[in-house]
Amino acid sequence: MVNLDAAKAKFDQLTQLKFNLVAENRKLRESVDLVKSKVNDFKPELKEMDVKSLEEELQAFLSDKAGETEYMQSLQLQIMKLKEISRIVRCCCGEEYSVELDLCV
After folding, report:
1. Greatest CA separation for the chain
2. What residue numbers bound the domain in which 80 lies?
3. pLDDT for 41-72, tens place per residue?
């Protein structure tokens, strides 16, 4: 009787493990199908490239983006410096004029 109860418990445990395995397998299959559908949306040129080439392209893109950001920041700094330019000019008639750079940015 003890052996029968132990066997039944073991059978129930194996049945639960099988159920869990089937559920996990279904989820993995769905994930694979999702990845396949996303891959089908890629342009043919990207599909043909290997991973290393794609990583190099990504790094080049990120580098270009960082360079553009740095360039834009330097332009903003130059604009701020230009806005600070202010001079007093004395005319030959004796009048003084304040000359400032007015940027409409």
Report:
1. 123
2. 2-100
3. 878 777 777 888 888 988 999 889 888 999 99
